[in-house]
Design a protein that fits this description.
about 325 residues, seven-stranded mixed beta sheet, about 40% helix
Length: about 325
C-alpha cells in the first residue's frame, strides 16, 4: 500500500518531495484509512496542516510539515486571552498557513492576525483558506469574541514598505517563512518544485538572507513591537546561526534561540523583545540597556532593582520623552 501512495505522490510532487511527504503523512496518520484520506487530499489540491485542511494552488508555496511543527510549538509559547489579545503580523504569508493555524489553536478572541505578501495569488489563496477555516476578517462586532485574519499587499524588501502596506504597528508577534533559498541552490531544485512554486516564494537573494535583513530592519523601527514581543522565523539549511546573529546585531534582540524540527534540522529562529531591558532581569547587557519602546540606548540608569520594578512604566515614558 505504501508503494501505491508513493507512486501517487510522486506523480504530482516528484520523487524526492514525495518520499518526504509520505514519511510525514505516515507519522501523522492515526490509521490506514486516515493515511489514505490525507494522501488523497494532498493529491487533490489540499494540504493537511495541523488540524486544518488548507487549499493549495500554484504558484503559492505548499505548507510544509516542518513549518507546522514549529507553529504548534509557538502556539504553546503564546500567552493570549480575550482580556489580553495579541496582534500578529505574518510576513510573506503565502497560503496563510501560519496565522490561520495560530488562530485555530489559540482561544477565541485572543489573537488578531494580518498576513502580508507581494503576490496577489497568495493573498487570494490566504483569504480563501481563512474562509475555509472559518476565520473572519476583523470587524467592530467580532474582535472581542473571534480570532480574526486579514491580508494586505506589501513588499518587505521595498524601502517604502511601512508606508505602502496597510499595516498598523505595534505588534506582539511577528512570524515569517520567507524566501530563503540562495541562488546556487535554487538552480539545483527539482522541477517538481520550480514548476509548481513561485520563484519569489523561494529565492532569498544571492546568499538567501535578504529577507531576514529586511525583517530585522523593520522590527527595530520605533514602536513597531510591543514590550515582550516575539519573532519567529523559519530558516533554510545552515542558516540558523546567521539569522540568529542578524536578529541580535541588526534587530537588537538580546534573547534569541534556535528550534530544531522533528528531523533534527535547525529550522526556526525565535527572538524575544525582553520585557525588562535591565541586567537584573536578563543576560548581561551593555551598561546602558536599550529602551523597550524605541530600542535606543537608555539615558536612565537607576541602580535599585526594586525602584526599577515599581517605576518601570514611568522610566520608559520619561526616556522616550527625552529622546523625542
Amino acid at each position: 500500500m505504501a508503494s501505491k501512495y508513493l507512486a501517487s505522490l510522486t506523480a504530482c510532487l516528484g520523487r524526492i518531495q514525495a518520499v518526504n511527504e509520505l514519511r510525514w503523512l505516515q507519522r501523522q496518520a492515526k490509521s490506514q484509512s486516515h493515511l489514505a484520506d490525507m494522501v488523497q487530499r494532498r493529491i487533490s489540491g489540499s494540504q493537511p496542516f495541523g488540524p486544518l485542511n488548507l487549499l493549495t494552488r500554484p504558484p503559492v508555496l505548499i505548507p510544509r510539515p516542518e513549518t507546522e511543527d514549529w507553529v504548534i510549538t509557538l502556539s504553546n509559547r503564546i500567552s493570549a486571552s480575550k482580556t489580553s489579545p495579541k496582534r500578529l503580523l505574518d510576513l510573506c504569508t503565502g497560503s496563510g498557513c501560519i496565522p490561520l493555524l495560530l488562530c485555530h489553536l489559540l482561544p477565541k478572541g485572543s489573537i488578531h492576525a494580518c498576513g502580508v505578501d507581494i503576490s496577489e495569488h497568495a493573498l487570494r489563496l490566504a483569504s480563501d483558506n481563512a474562509q475555509l477555516c472559518g476565520t473572519p476578517q476583523p470587524t467592530q462586532s467580532n474582535v472581542d469574541h473571534e480570532n480574526t485574519f486579514s491580508v494586505t499587499n506589501g513588499n518587505i524588501l521595498s524601502p517604502t514598505f511601512l508606508n505602502d502596506a496597510n499595516i498598523v504597528p505595534p505588534y506582539d508577534i511577528v512570524t515569517s517563512n520567507p524566501p530563503y533559498i540562495p541562488w546556487n541552490e535554487y538552480l539545483q531544485l527539482p522541477s517538481s518544485v520550480t514548476d509548481y512554486e513561485d520563484p519569489k516564494a523561494l529565492f532569498g537573494g544571492p546568499d538567501g538572507l535578504s529577507f531576514y535583513h529586511a525583517i530585522a530592519s523593520l522590527v527595530r523601527q520605533k514602536r513597531f513591537l510591543r514590550p515582550g514581543a516575539l519573532i519567529a522565523l523559519e530558516v533554510g539549511h545552515n542558516q540558523a546561526e546567521d539569522v540568529k546573529q542578524i536578529m541580535r546585531s541588526e534587530a537588537h534582540m538580546h534573547s534569541v534561540e534556535i528550534w530544531s524540527d522533528p528531523w533534527g534540522k535547525q529550522r526556526t529562529v525565535v527572538a524575544h523583545l525582553t520585557l525588562y531591558p535591565y541586567p537584573a532581569f536578563n543576560q548581561i547587557l551593555p551598561s546602558r540597556p536599550k529602551c523597550i519602546n524605541c530600542q535606543r540606548l537608555s539615558m536612565i540608569n537607576i541602580p535599585n532593582l526594586e525602584t526599577e520594578t515599581i517605576l518601570f512604566g514611568t522610566i520608559i515614558q520619561k526616556h522616550c520623552t527625552e529622546i523625542n
